[in-house]
């Protein structure tokens, strides 16, 4: 057993080493944008205005005196836009240079067009001027310039009080959306309504297929959905076909992504000096084993973070065809999204194929029917941490640089199926546990020998019929289905040697990382929704009267095999 005083000294050395890490990498020059927002007519400051730097995800809300400050803005020319309900959004061009502070004054004009905007609320639509609840609409023009793989990420930074986070950052991993913080009922996720059909998530939607998004924040706005809306509601309407000449649009982009500002790790010499110092400070007598090890010629000089990370590629292709006449309108779209991870692993990627169709037919002046159908197939190959809970990034941070990534080619146990080192053990003069360098598993081996494949097929859509009983009274029936089929397979392969191998860096008792194992599960979930509504709306000079009555039936069935 290693004496406690030595463990404390080693811990102190590791803390000192961690404290000496400094961020490095390509530092992009940045500046600051400050200013204040006023009413163009009264010249009074406006509070709570959302000021954003388009295309950067940066923004701020104005304070009580109308001032704002946005730091960390990349140097260059940017479009600054201020938004507030009841005012027109006017873009302003600003030039930011490195280390500078740019001051601007934004004068907003009141706009009747904003108050006359039609937003989707509950099972109907209303003019924004008639809404008293907390309702926010997403500017869809901004989404067209953002290169994001799904609608959930497109919401980030678009609505005040809406938080979008991703726990791991892995391609295709789940997105957490919270409206006005955490709640105490349910799972804290908002209710998603897509074309009148409830859904558990919106990651299957392509941003290019979305026509409008409305966020219902408070109880008065979302009360019509009952307890399901305790965490808020996000109402999404997808694009529809329009009468006119048939058009075909092709939209594609590609890019790369990589980790930046990685810490500088200790090299082999620095690490051995710290360990030698820890031994000396521990109060042990006798020969310092790290002093002896410093003279070894077989010590590696491995930067584990550099070995682990690589450059990931991303690609998106969207093809849309639409058209129609006064009677029938159609829209067809298909998309491919592919995103590679930034960890050195050939199958760390996410792919999504989707096909969507929308058809609307006016059978008469009063009666029309339509359908929306989306087919989506998502394939996710991700790194698994089963059996190694801390994860590969932590192992890369704590694994000593004196250990190589691969075994010595002269090692008699070397083979193509097991080329990696695991945990080498060097003999120590004070015990027989041989664990002087036992810090972390081989993160590169973890990346290659853990494989988690997740496949999900989704059918989502609805068919509806609408009949105008009169100019003010309309009846609508909507039948929706949400079908999910999943197949997950996690394979964790053993690496490392029971006997430690034959090289000088892999001697001793050795350790197998874990036994080889396979976990597999299949499941399906089906949700059917049928709602019928009668909507009355009539304008009487300067007044409007509206009423809504309806019923909704929801059934859910699920099964799984593990």
CATH level-four homologous superfamily name of the domain at 26-110 = Carboxypeptidase-like, regulatory domain
What's the arrangement of strands in the largest beta sheet?
A: 17-18-19-20-21-22-23-24-25
Query: What is the percent of helical residues?
Result: 10-25%
- Gross morphology is globular
Secondary structure blueprint with pairings:
Elements: H1 4-19, E1 30-39, E2 50-53, E3 58-61, E4 67-74, E5 76-83, E6 91-96, E7 101-108, H2 112-115, E8 118-121, E9 124-127, E10 135-137, H3 140-143, H4 151-154, E11 162-166, E12 175-179, E13 191-194, E14 197-199, E15 210-216, H5 219-222, E16 233-238, E17 244-257, H6 268-282, H7 289-293, H8 304-308, E18 312-324, E19 328-340, E20 349-362, E21 367-382, H9 392-398, H10 443-449, E22 450-468, E23 473-492, E24 517-540, E25 543-561
Parallel strand pairs: 1-7, 13-16
Antiparallel strand pairs: 1-4, 2-3, 2-5, 5-6, 8-9, 10-15, 11-12, 13-14, 15-16, 17-18, 18-19, 19-20, 20-21, 21-22, 22-23, 23-24, 24-25
Helix pairs in contact: 1-6, 9-10
What would you say this structure looks like, in words?
The protein has 562 residues and is mainly beta. It has a domain of 85 residues: Immunoglobulin-like (Sandwich). The protein has ten helices and 25 strands. The strands form six sheets. The protein has a nine-stranded antiparallel beta sheet with strand order 17-18-19-20-21-22-23-24-25. Helix 1 runs antiparallel to helix 6 and helix 9 packs antiparallel against helix 10. It is globular and about 100 Å long.
